[in-house]
Amino acid sequence: MMSPNVVIERIRQLARSEGGLYKIHHAHSGLYARARRQFGSWAEAVQAAGVDYVAALTVARRRSIETRRKRRRQGAHPPR
What share of the chain is helix, strand, coil (3-state, %, to 5)? Predict the structure, then answer.
């Protein structure tokens, strides 16, 4: 079990990393689930960590769009 302080620190570390908070629910599903249980939502947990959630979401969306465009150019489509 991670305490709220540990969850907040892990979010801060990930937010500072190269990948940021992109696809966090896949890459760190345990942290994502724990944060939601402790803070009510992922957004609340990110805000409690002092990270600008709107900015983090904007970066994640931009990366998602870029990834989709690259896949289309390469002719690969993700499975549905």
Answer: 70, 0, 30
